Amino acid sequence: MPSTPPEGQPAPPDGQLPPEARAGLPGRPLSLYVHVPFCASRCGYCDFNTYTAAELGAAPGASQEAYLAAVRAELDLARDVLGEPSAVQSVFFGGGTPTMLAAPALSGLLDAVRARFPLAPGAEVTTEANPESVDRAYLDTLVAAGFTRLSLGMQSSRPGVLAVLDRRHTPGRVGEVVAQARAAGFGSVSVDLIYGSPTETIGDWTASLDTALGYDPDHVSAYSLIVEPGTRLGARIGRGELPAPDEDFHADCYLLAEERLAAAGYRAYEVSNWARPGQESRHNLAYWLGHDWWGFGPGAHSHANGVRWWNVRHPRTYSARLAAGESPAEAREVLTTDERRVERVLLELRLSAGLPLDVLTAAEQARVPALVAGGLAVVEDGRARLTTAGRLLADAVIRDLLD
């Protein structure tokens, strides 16, 4: 089942922000995220807030039609809460599998966004997709509706690795979809990879990298597999059917990814994301830079000027809340000034641009020379940046740096 959300404070039924947070919204960059919770099947490693048809059953409140109506209602709520918002810089449809919706339905959601929020000129509009869930006609419809970017869940090019992950597509289908997306007119195409799967070898990972590069994408995300409790993969490892993850192997995979991708002209602009110049995901950067975003849909998270909240997770409960005229938020937290500073350190140090040193306390700044001496960071133009070795150990580096 999907992972458990964090604890928080009660969220107001009308969804309104604290007055001081709302007063500071004008001029802050804004992005929108739309969570589509439907999947044809659940991958063995997945603990995202997604549901198959069998898990949802036949209750009307969990149908795609109820979901679409509820998202439109939440869009109305967001427009009311945010007042006169800044122009939206990026819109991202994630999941789940957004392309489980029919192309007119997914395009209609973008129309609903556009009817309520001004989009900035050249706004980035992304949808995630599984390779088996789209064809050329589907992609043509999305481009005509205003989608500009496609993010494909490739994960691996090796059939054995895909089988362990419970992925349904055939390896060659990814390349076909990339070509179809180019022909349809998408301005940017990204592929997602996962490394460190049980039974995967360095040869498998090399083949996946080389295959992905052969598709000539604009952007590559490469994530280390995390085995989450409660997933099918976690249960198989717990029973001894599959080996547990090997941290040294994960490190070897990361370094190989950096080597192969850098040689092909991709720059790591964030620890797990590489792009050609100018093809960085603006939506990803909005998260890392602490911008505002509203997440629509079951289980979606939002952030506005230091206030974070998250929606109830089940589609039926989500739809019922909005049908009753209430906010779907389950809980929220209002960050203190120091919590926002710490979060900025956690996020911005993961970026290639690094973190301004003056964000750090005096005690934290005193720890930076040791990171530099250890080859984990460099200091340039008043900013601390992680090296490749530092990126490999980013979580530990940041933990040791902070007070």
Explained architecture:
The chain is 40% helix and 21% strand. With 403 residues, it is an alpha/beta fold. It folds into two domains: 9-288, tm_1862 like domain (pyruvate-formate lyase- activating enzyme); 337-403, Arc Repressor Mutant, subunit A (Orthogonal Bundle). The protein has a nine-stranded mixed beta sheet, sandwiched between helices. A four-stranded antiparallel beta sheet has the order 1-13-12-11, with no helix packed on it. β4, α5 and β5 form a beta-alpha-beta unit.
Please give the CATH architecture of the largest domain. Alpha-Beta Horseshoe
Q: Can you tell me the CATH topology of the largest domain?
A: pyruvate-formate lyase- activating enzyme
Strand order in the largest sheet:
8-9-7-6-5-4-3-2-10
Q: Return the average pLDDT rounded to an integer.
A: 95
Strand content: 15-25%
In the residues, how many domains can be counted? 2
CATH homologous superfamily assignment of the largest domain: tm_1862 like domain
Q: How far apart are the termini?
A: 35 Å
Tell me the structural class.
alpha/beta
- Sheet with the most strands? 9 strands, mixed
Topology:
Elements: E1 9-10, H1 19-23, E2 30-36, H2 53-56, H3 64-82, E3 88-95, H4 103-116, E4 119-129, H5 136-145, E5 149-155, H6 159-165, H7 171-184, E6 188-195, H8 202-214, E7 219-224, H9 232-238, H10 247-263, E8 267-270, E9 273-275, H11 282-288, E10 292-296, E11 301-304, E12 307-311, H12 315-323, E13 329-334, H13 337-348, E14 355-356, H14 362-373, E15 377-380, E16 383-386, H15 388-392, H16 394-401
Parallel strand pairs: 2-3, 2-10, 3-4, 4-5, 5-6, 6-7
Antiparallel strand pairs: 1-13, 7-9, 8-9, 11-12, 12-13, 14-16, 15-16
Helix pairs in contact: 3-4, 3-12, 4-5, 5-7, 8-10
